[in-house]
Amino acid sequence: MTTVFENHGMACPNCGDDNCLNVEIQSVARLLPTGTDIVGDQEWSDRSHVICDACGHEGPVSKFSGRKAKMARQLRSLRDLIDRTMWDHVYQESEGILPGPDCEYTAALASIDALLADGKGTHLVAGA
Which residue among 8, 17, 59, 101 has its CA within the 20 to 30 Å range from the CA of 68? Predict the structure, then answer.
């Protein structure tokens, strides 16, 4: 299954999410008595407005497809991998006891969350 990032090269530069992006598009629609029917291509440019539903960050497409967006996406993917590994191995092996802050997996998640946090220290990653 491909992702929005793989198909369009876009991810939120703030939280790294690529599943909840809304982009302002330009299109042609035929007006019908019952509504509208899109008849043309759906296009956007680097200046089109994007909103991330995951964290509320807004900006032009150019900011969602730049280096910062790619790094945020990579950090989010790494966080998801560490989180899955922690639950698959550490949590199950400890008989359902959550690992403490001294666990290397928990520490790695906290570090990544800090990198993905906004300026107020609020974590924007789901589940953080």
Answer: 101
